[in-house]
Amino acid sequence: MTVEDLREELTAIDAIYPGCIEEVGPQIFNLSPPGDDELIIELSFPLDYPDIKPDVIAVVSKNPSKYPDERYLEKSVNDIVLKVFRKGEVCLFDLFTELEEFLYKYESNQNENPETASGTNEEVNKAEEPDTHETQETDHFIDRKTFDIQVKDPLEGWTQSDPIVDRGSTFVGFARQVHSVEDAENYLEILKTDRKISKANHNMLSWRIKRDDGVQYQDCDDDGETAAGGRILHLLTMMDAWNVIVVVSRWFGGTHIGPDRFKHINSAARDAVIKGNFVAADKNSTGKKKKKK
Fold first, then answer.
1. Which of 14, 15, 161, 240 could potentially form a cystine with 271 if both were Cys, beta carbons 3.0 to 4.6 Å apart?
2. What are the CA-CA distances from residue 249 to residues 95, 193, 194, 201, 203 (Å)?
3. Top CATH class, 3-126
4. Which CATH superfamily is domain 144-283 in?
5. What is the pTM of this model?
6. Which of these, 19, 43, 9, 39, lies nearest to 29 by C-alpha position?
7. Where is this region: Disordered (predicted)?
8. Bigger pLDDT: 153 vs 38
9. By CB neighbour count within 10 A (0-12 exposed, 13-18 middle, 19+ buried), where does 246 fall?
């Protein structure tokens, strides 16, 4: 992979995790966990990346009460790099995903220690706090038959995933064919007129559009769920899905489920895309990554 190819990967990651990557030197970058600027991970990328893994230069804690053990964190980040790295395949997206899960568990363990500074638990759960939508609705759980009847008109033309329920939270994906940005925006507004969808805590979305003349459009919206829209866009890119808008609605059940929510968001989005036949059968697998040219 050339330096230009590395920059393409970094550009894609920056679209998913804005502001989480900073170049500090030739082939050297600082990474910060999404939504958390109190931990800095300095990585060095060899010129032969991805044939050779990136090196962890340092892990720096800007908040010792939250991240007190830099040596342990550095060892753990090195272990994560070894886990996600496969020769010839880019690994930054997987690195961010594994890092989020590790830090969630790390902070949860810190909270169980009575010597941990107070307030950390609030910080851990902050990223998963519901927005100002009506969160205490007792009818936000989805029964598929009831849901189909109640949103028949707003859902006309949309493909719906099977609901995913985990610890009270419900995730449902929706996919629809579009041929212009105007199509995507109009269909989205119609979808949001449904009573249940309008009360979802998050309606995360992405679209990818390719016109007949080759002009391409793509965009995403996290709707308050850090990097969720970017993850859906990444999924659509990996599936090579075009001329489709995907919305994943989440109804928060009151229990924080950590990084598992991102797995459910991706699963709901993927299910809707596949059920809507927006991707060829040989593209259903999202496990392939960019190889060295």
1. 161
2. 26, 13, 12, 8, 4
3. alpha beta
4. Impact, N-terminal domain (3.30.230.30)
5. 0.64
6. 43
7. 109-140
8. 38
9. buried
